[in-house]
């Protein structure tokens, strides 16, 4: 077997060999031939050069039982690490979807009432909402200009209902300027992932719409939150699921308590949380919460997660909800 001189130089820098239990670390300038000679795997008479190539004996070419030592940690991701990375990706996607939805709402508001928040109450309300959610101002400014562009249509809200695996229901919220495009994209993803489109109203009744304040578990004491929120009139406190891989502090960063409230009492709860110095993330208008979560096996859970992830990747999709129990 022949090796080019460039291959020899490349592989020699990665070569580690043992001879009689002694570790040999080749110098940067060490060639593959010299490293093998040092390790005793070949003798100088058993190989020869031909132009710019080295030819090694057959017994060496078939040798694959060489002991190796890693001098650095293997590059890999265990289940826990992938979960943390997955949560970070989900958080980034959630923020991107929020920005996108606000931008679409700004376009629709400007299309209906003009670019001035003084005369356009819907736009003025959106600007206040942007301040509340700590969204960059340029999101509003950019989309006010976008609304005046030729051919830009107003956005319409659509809801699609989907059957997932294990009897799970999925709600897909869409804000689009091209309804035919959005429904075609959603249908394609659902079909490819093995789901099934449902008739309007066949899944929605399994959910209730509520206002929600999200609070990281690392930012508050559980008992303190329960006392404050319930005294302020919260309807429910939804605690995050916990498993064996979510017990460390680092993995708790993205786990949240959901303080559920009616629309009327929502400002009261936010005000109370602020008074107590508890950091929270408000919803973007409302959330859909399952009335009776459905428990499924691991396989169905993974398939539903993949389906929902693919749906969220669609540009027109702003939110995806499920009654699957985690």
Explain what you see.
The structure is a single chain. With 326 residues, the chain is an alpha+beta fold. The protein is 39% helix and 20% strand. Among the domains are: 83-148, Integrase, N-terminal zinc-binding domain (Arc Repressor Mutant, subunit A, Orthogonal Bundle), CATH 1.10.10; 156-241 and 253-322, Alpha-Beta Plaits. It has helices at residues 5-12, 32-39, 58-61, 79-113, 121-132, 137-147, 179-192, 222-231, 266-275, 298-312, and strands at 2-4, 17-19, 22-24, 48-50, 53-55, 156-163, 169-176, 196-198, 207-216, 236-238, 256-261, 281-282, 287-290, 317-322. α4 packs antiparallel against α5 (121-132) and α4 (79-113) packs across α6 (137-147). It is flat. The chain starts with a strand and ends with a strand. Residues 8-33, 48-86 and 243-251 have low confidence and may be disordered. One of its GO terms (cellular component) is chloroplast.
In the predicted model, the low-confidence regions spanning at least 5 consecutive residues are: 8-33, 48-86, 243-251
* Structure class: alpha+beta
**Highest CATH level, the class of one domain:** Alpha Beta
In angstroms, what is the radius of gyration? 30 Å
* Shape verdict: flat
